[in-house]
Amino acid sequence: MNPEMASPSSSSDRRITVLARHLAGVEMDSKNDSISAFPTSGSDNNSVFSHVVRGPEDPILGVTVAYNKDPSPVKLNLGVGAYRTEEGKPLVLNVVRKAELLLVNDRSRVKEYLPITGLAEFNKLSAKLMFGANCPAIQENRVTTVQCLSGTGSLRVGAEFLAKHYLQRTIYIPQPTWGNHPKIFTLAGLSVKTYRYYDPATRGLNFQGLVEDLSSASSGAIVLLHACAHNPTGVDPTFQQWEQIRKLMRSKGLMPFFDSAYQGFASGNLDADAQPVRMFVADGGELLLAQSYAKNMGLYGERIGALSIVCKTADVAARVESQLKLVIRPMYSNPPIHGASIVAAILKNRDLYNEWTIELKAMADRIISMRQKLFEALRARGTPGDWSHIVKQIGMFTFTGTKL
Length: 404
Ligand code: IK2
What we know:
Layout: H1 3-6, H2 11-24, E1 27-28, E2 35-36, H3 61-69, H4 94-105, H5 120-131, H6 136-139, E3 143-149, H7 150-165, E4 170-175, H8 181-187, E5 191-196, E6 198-199, E7 204-205, H9 207-215, E8 222-226, H10 239-251, E9 255-260, H11 270-282, E10 287-292, E11 304-310, H12 314-332, H13 338-348, H14 350-380, H15 389-392
Parallel strand pairs: 4-5, 4-8, 8-9, 9-10
Antiparallel strand pairs: 1-2, 3-11, 6-7, 10-11
C-alpha cells in the first residue's frame, strides 16, 4: 500500500485515504490507522460522504416541510401554489376520478414503456389545448410536442435543447419570477439575466421597465414569459401590452419561451388564458412552450406536462424532435404513463372535457371570491393602506406588498 495513504498528514489527506480504502473494501481503525474489515461504528468518519454539508430546504417546498411539522390546528400553508377546498383540503377533481375509473376498467391497457416522447395522443391534445383546434402551425405539422415531467421537466428539457442547439445561451427571466426558474436554466447550461416586471410602487406591471430591458437585450436572446397568472406577482400584461411585447420581441429576434402552469386558472377560461401564446403562434414565428397539468387538472403529484416547440417547417420540427429525444433518453428515458392517460381521457371525450371546464371555472371563481373576501375584510377592519391590488392581481398568488 502507498505509505502516504497509511499515514495521512491532514484532514483532507485523511478523507482521501478513507475514500480510497473504502473503495478498496478496507477501512482504517480511527484510533491507530490500522486496517480493519468494513466498519461497524456509526461514526461520521467512516462515511465517504462525511464532508457533505447539509443543504438548505427549498424556499417554497421547505414551507410545506415546516407546515407538516407544525402541530398547530389552525395552521395555513401559504407557500406552494396548491388549490385547497373550503375545508382547507386538497382537491381531486371529479372528472379525474371518472377518468381513472375508465382507465382501471379498461383491461386492454398495459404498463409497457411509453416512447421517449411520451403518449402520442396526449401530446396532440395538449398542443391543441394551448394553440387552438384550428392552429395553422399544428395543421402544417410545424409543432413538435413531447410529454415531460410536469411544467418543471418541460422547462428543463426545453432549456437543455436550447443550450445544445440554439444560437444564444442567454435567457431573460422576469424580476421577480418563480424561484425555481433560475436554477432550472442555469443547470441546463443557460446564462440567466433578468428583465424588470413588477413595480412595487403600483403593485402592478412595470411595463416601461420591461420594454426597456427587452429592447436592450442582445439580439436572439431567449425570453421566459409567464403565459398567464404570473407567479409570484399575480400581475399579467393586458392584451394590448402583450401585442407590444410580441412586436418588440419579433423585431429583435428574441426567442419566446412560454411557461404555462396556470391555463384556465387566471380567467376560468382555457381559451382566454391561452391568448398571449396564440398571438405569438399566429405571427408564424418560432417559440417554446412548457405546459403543466399540475394546477388546472389538480394532477400535482402525477408530474404530467408537455414541451412544445413551434418551428418554421415540418421538416425542422421533425429534426428538433429527434434531438429532444436525445436530451430525454439519458435524463429519464421515457415519461410515466398514468398522468398522461388521465389527461388524454379527459381531453378526448367531449363530456369529460366539458365537466373539466366547469370544475376548473369553479376553482378559478373561488380564488377570485377569496381575493374579494380578503380585500373586504381588510377594508372592514380599517387596515391602513391601499389593498386594491389583491383584487386586481389574478391567479393563485398575491404580492401583498407587506415587508416581513
Ligand atoms: N412554472 C411556474 C410559473 C410555476 O408556478 C410552477 C409551479 N409552482 O408551484 C409548485 C412549486 O413551487 O414546485 C411551475 C412552473 C412548475 O410546476 P410543475 O412542475 O408542478 O408542473
